[in-house]
Amino acid sequence: MTTTAQSAPGTAAVAAGGAPTHPDGGSRIGWAVADTFTVVRRNLIVYTRIPEFLFFSTVQPIMFVLLFRYVFGGAIHPPPGYPNYADYLMPGIFVQSVAFGSISTAVGLSEDLQKGLLERFRALPMARSAVLTGRTTADLVRNVFVVAVITAVGYAVGFRIGAGVAAFVAGIVMILLFAYAMSWGFAVIGLSAPNSETAQVMAFPILFPLVFASPAFVNVRSMPGWLQPFANHQPIGVVVNATRALTHGGPTAGPVLQALLWCGGLLVVFVPLAVRQYRRRA
Asked: What is the pTM of this model?
């Protein structure tokens, strides 16, 4: 004889086997995945309704490409083995673009928190994990678009793939993984800040030293000796070196392994912190 459990409105039902189900049916995992995609869709719709946001998200990286290629490029000499400065520059631009783009996670979550939207999400019969995973996944989708645009701009200014298409695609996947990990870090900042303006102000002082004290734009050997170890081993520096190896050529195993360890370490640290902060603030 089969028994069924009825659930009150706004709560998950429990099947006969004991597994939580969505009020509309389905398993707990399927419920979480469906809710995540709903939140992703909600965040991506913003770009269609406010296209200026997506436009300026891509304009800034393009301006950096043109600035460093044609204004600073003549004074910056890449290491031997690079046909032109664009080949050395573009891996740094890729990483810098997704790193700065990850700040939108902090700003978006802070705005949702300030408007009371996260409290309304908690009142709905939805998986709580969907709010954070949906936000970070939507920002990942935006970064895919930004990287595609920057690749086209890079080719226009002289960038060429030196290690083959497969290695280049692997480098882009690694960059996107790093962007996803950074989004979780900035999610912690967004959920900690009192408003979106403060969230942005809190994020930039953290990100600026990591981006510019790195091999993203210049040869690390031109930096003071005490700064070189930091530039080469901090997360953005490691990911830039790995991306450069995958796009231009050279030894890849060591740099890629270090970059993947940084990405995994950032996720292990920041995902639980973001979830904890979300439970406290929402």
From this structure: 0.83
